[in-house]
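Quick look at the format.
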Amino acid sequence: MSLPAWSEQFDRDRLRNVPSTLPPIITREWAWAGATGAGVRVAVVDSGVDAGHPAVGHVDGAVIVEHDPEAPSHVRFVEGAHGDVFGHGTACAGIIRSIAPDCELFSVRVLGARLTGKGHVFAAGLRWTLEHDMNVVNMSLSTGKQDYFGLFHEIADAAYFRNVMLVCAVNNVPGPSYPSEYASVFSVAAHVDKDPLHFDYNPEPPVEFGAPGVSLDVAWLDRGRLTASGNSFAAPHIAGIVALTLSKHPRLTTFEMKTVLASLADNRTAALRAG
């Protein structure tokens, strides 16, 4: 079976155990037991979200960001309910909802019907999430264009200092992708485990976290479902876990959340993961 690029970093024969460094009080029970995601605002920057899909339930806010040569900065924002033009965003939203069912979910549509888009539109959508007080942003998309390196780095740094937690999938094919490879974001690739709360920590670049993303049953268009693989579907698992943890510990900063997740990963010592 062909796996998405970077998944090999989480192969059980390759991924090494990482020594524990935090006190044993940091357990999964401490992190999210009893939490539901309530009070956490999560944006899905993607192809849109079908609010009527049973796996999604509802969407708390939505905006379409699109190219408009007549608009300032060549970008137009259309706020209000919209659908999913591909199915990809609905899949990601459904995963997040399954982990953090009571989070506030927002759809930021920056991709078209072919799951393609423009870099400046993607950047504008990401800026919208910062301006509208999102806590967690799921980006199962990225750009490999070097011309956008500086722009996305600037936005990612702004998110970091505003404590907006950016979760980004790396590309499914080898090569650099932004903003997924920045140290300020939670970079994610797929591993073969199916348990939604099981994830790995990789101390070597370019990907920090591995989560389920291979042969998954995901929500799709027309209230349907399909089996899909990709780093795209690993990222919302981490976004959901971040939202779940943040609902219980709302004062955690981005670097503290990274430390907590790294400490609770499956390839940490069993004693630290107890609970």
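Next, a different chain entirely:
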Amino acid sequence: MSAVESRLAELGLTLPEVVPPLAAYQPAVRSGAYVYTSGQLPMVDGKLSAIGKVGAEVTAEEAKDLARTCALNALAAVKSVAGDLDRIARVVKVVGFVASAADFTGQPGVINGASELLAEVLGDKGVHARSAVGVAVLPLDAPVEVEIQVELTEA
């Protein structure tokens, strides 16, 4: 077990299986020293954890937890192409999308769920640049979607 996966276990978390693509794309792609994940939804055991807009059917706190799930799914996608999460040199960028009710403006707090998880798991390597964007709707009516970009160490 990698040090990163041991840290996940210490936090009471397990790395999930890679979420299969819902359309014509790959969950993650490696280019040189970088891995770019596709947008990860809050899928658990092949099912979306919640549906609806944040600020309406889904609370900001619920959405923050869903963003954590998205980040875990993103780490699984990274592992699928990197082979070992211990190869992560750093998380470079996180982009989070929040399906928002018209008056909801707490997107940064929601995406903190993903950012905080990455920092908890990876320490300083998990601190990153980030965008948190409110959108009208996401695939399958998901409340949150997160993508990450990581730099790898040499094999």
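The radius of gyration is 15 Å.

See the schema section for token definitions.
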